[in-house]
Specification:
The chain has helices at about 5-15, 20-35, 110-115, 140-160, 180-185, 195-200, 210-215, 270-280, 300-305, 310, 320-340; strands at about 40-45, 55-65, 70-75, 75-80, 80, 90-95, 120-125, 165-175, 230-235, 255-260, 285-290. It has eleven helices and eleven strands. The radius of gyration is 19 Å and the shape is globular. The longest helix is centred in the C-terminal third of the chain and has 20 residues, at about 320-340. It has a single domain (about 5-165, about 170-295, about 325-340), classed as 3-Layer(aba) Sandwich (Rossmann fold), CATH 3.40.50. It is of the alpha/beta class.
């Protein structure tokens, strides 16, 4: 969609939103409602390769009874404590699915916010569709393996992880960005459409040079991911929309849907609004005004800003760090409403 059309749609959405002061007060109230945790614990584990898929290296973020700390992980300074024993019982589990070329750290601030609020969070690199490993990025198979990666991670956390007794198996959610947003919807029961995908992604005149578009045009093209009934709620962030209206009818779990007003990387505000229109009317919808697609990634440290400005630079006037504080509070509040059992006191 042309930029001027995206801006027009953004203005239309804004016209139906409360005045700026009301939005500020609403955000402040959400931030005040996030339970103050002592710290987020951080550890890693390995899920071995099997007939179900390649090995996965998983980052696990947990509530931690220790003092707050900070640690360097890759290019980031993360607000977490290494190997802090998890605290609490009957904890909800959230699995994070990153976007194309992302990593297990792409949403580390959201993981920390959830862990601080009493959640176990697992994030990992999707094999073949992550930074430094893109061998399956342009295949249709990646849209089946991505949801399978999340399901394998859920199974490992429930059945094998040392802290599995602390997880409430009836309180499992998914947070997904971009292709990870597609992944979250597929896990929640959405069925991709080859025709809708080709029309949405491959209408430009250079699409014949795109390997994924060429694959979508094959007579035998198919994408049939498996839903996971253990997923009870989904936060879907600026998702790649590979669905038609009929394919979204299978989504019956609560959804919080986020869009960037300016879009990018194959995602437009119009595409996300089409999802909103087809999802159940109870779906929560949020628009990041003045933001592009990559604004949903964790704020960039200086080294990453210098080496990857394409994912770090934001439009003038957009404050990514401030936006993330508001967004993370709303994500925590959504999962509190949809996953935490009434009267559990957490």
């Amino acid at each position: 969609m042309p930029l001027h059309d995206a801006l027009a749609r953004a203005r239309a959405v804004t016209a139906f939103r409360p005045p700026m002061i009301a939005r500020w007060l609403f955000a402040a109230a959400l931030l005040a409602c996030v339970r103050p945790g002592a710290a987020a614990g951080y550890a890693t584990l390995a899920i071995p390769a099997s007939d179900e898929g390649p090995g996965l290296r998983v980052a696990v973020w947990t509530p931690c009874a220790g003092a707050r700390g900070a640690m360097a992980i890759g290019p980031y300074t993360v607000a977490a404590v290494a190997d802090c024993p998890p605290s609490g019982d009957a904890l909800p589990l959230i699995v994070i699915s990153h976007g194309q070329g992302g990593t297990s750290l792409s949403h580390h601030d959201t993981a920390v916010a959830l862990a601080d609020a009493g959640y176990v969070v697992a994030s990992f690199n999707h094999p073949g569709d992550t930074h430094g490993d893109d061998k399956h990025t342009s295949t249709l198979a990646i849209f089946e393996s991505r949801p399978a990666d999340v399901s394998r991670t859920i199974s490992h956390m429930l059945e094998t992880w040392d802290g599995r007794a602390r997880i409430d198996p009836a309180s499992i959610g998914v947070f997904g960005f971009s292709r990870g947003g597609y992944t979250a919807l597929a896990l929640a029961g959405a069925k991709p459409s080859i025709a809708a995908s080709a029309a949405r992604l491959c209408g430009h005149w250079l699409s014949f040079t795109d390997r994924l578009c060429r694959r979508l045009g094959d007579d035998d093209a198919r994408v049939a991911p498996r839903a996971d009934p253990r997923v009870r709620a989904a936060v879907v962030v600026d998702p790649l929309n590979l669905f038609d209206e009929a394919g979204l009818r299978g989504v019956q779990v609560p959804v919080q849907l986020w869009a960037s007003a300016l879009g990018g990387a194959g995602v437009t505000l119009a595409d996300v609004e089409a999802l909103r229109a087809a999802l159940p009317p109870t779906t929560e919808f949020r628009v990041a005004q003045g933001a592009g697609h990559f604004a949903f990634l964790a704020p960039c440290p200086p080294a990453l800003q210098a080496s990857a400005p394409e994912i770090c630079d934001d439009p003038e006037g957009f404050d990514r760090a401030a936006w993330h504080r508001t967004m993370n509070a709303e994500v925590v509040a959504f999962f509190d409403r949809t996953l935490r059992r009434a009267g559990d006191g957490r």
